[in-house]
Amino acid sequence: MTAELIQKTCTPCRGGIPPLTRDEAEALQAQTPEWALLDDAHRIERTFRFKNFREALTFVQDVGELAESEGHHPDINFGWGYATVSLRTKKIKGLDENDFIMAAKIDRLAGQSDTSKAER
Fold it and tell me: What is the spatial distance between Cα 26 and Cα 86, in angstroms, rounded to a whole number?
């Protein structure tokens, strides 16, 4: 099922729509199981582990390029050996399918780097 999300492209959110319900978010989260559903199902987050700062920085740069191409931008916190990526759609103050599309694509980026290990 994750392949379905990976094949999609984020669409611009104009606001004025409700965020996903908890049930809708849980159904999509099942397709991106490494991501934790947080803040009463209004945000998803995943921490990735790396051997050193350079690998974490490279990953963050790759996620940044992906975010620019998709027009959907996560919050990222990183340092020596880790990067934590948090997704939510700010215009609707909650989750949208775009967040899960980005999560699936970020998972693919992490999978391309055999040096990263992820944890929730």
Answer: 16
